[in-house]
């Protein structure tokens, strides 16, 4: 009888941890927002999205304003098409840039929005035309070592 009680308690603990993990991941990825219209999408096309995945932060002035919600390869242009989902209420000028930046030498990558000066803002579904892809640290080091950087 004591074994059954112990197994039941351990099983309940495992289920509680799994439920907590699912709740946490749904909040981090934005799935838990309930579709209440608290965000709007922008499209961007990058030469390289190395280090960026679905769920990567989108930041403006170092503050998280959204996430990357989709990444696909465009077979016509051979570029990576990204969907950036931004919080409602944050109006980005329509001449802004989207740059893949690094948190540091050993940090991860994120998408940084560099605001422009236009008085007009992006509408939901618009495309950010000014983009800069990820810079590969390995290729930079190889250029430095081989002297190919001239």
UniProtKB/TrEMBL annotation:
Signal peptide bounds: none
GO BP annotation list: phospholipid transport
InterPro entries given in the database record: ABC_MlaD (IPR030970), Mce/MlaD (IPR003399), MlaD_Phospholipid_Transporter (IPR052336)
Domain Mce/MlaD: 39-116
Top-level taxon: Bacteria
Pfam short name (any one): MlaD
NCBIfam families with a match to the protein in the record: OM_asym_MlaD (TIGR04430)
Alphabetized PANTHER family for the sequence: INTERMEMBRANE PHOSPHOLIPID TRANSPORT SYSTEM BINDING PROTEIN MLAD (PTHR33371:SF4), INTERMEMBRANE PHOSPHOLIPID TRANSPORT SYSTEM BINDING PROTEIN MLAD-RELATED (PTHR33371)
Protein name: Putative phospholipid ABC transporter-binding protein MlaD
Species of origin: Pseudoruegeria aquimaris
């Amino acid at each position: 009888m004591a074994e059954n009680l112990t197994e039941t308690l351990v099983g309940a603990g495992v289920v509680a941890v799994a439920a907590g993990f699912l709740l946490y991941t749904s909040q981090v990825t934005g799935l838990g927002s309930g579709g209440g219209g608290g965000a709007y999408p922008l499209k961007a096309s990058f030469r390289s999205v190395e280090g960026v995945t679905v769920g990567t932060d989108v930041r403006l002035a170092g503050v998280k304003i959204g996430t990357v919600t989709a990444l696909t390869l465009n077979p016509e242009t051979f570029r990576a098409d990204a969907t950036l989902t931004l919080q409602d209420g944050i109006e980005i000028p329509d001449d802004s840039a989207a740059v893949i930046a690094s948190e540091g030498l050993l940090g991860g990558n994120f998408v940084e929005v560099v605001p422009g000066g236009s008085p007009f803002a992006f509408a939901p579904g618009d495309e950010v035309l000014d983009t800069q892809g990820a810079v590969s640290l390995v290729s930079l080091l190889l250029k430095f070592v081989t002297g190919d950087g001239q």
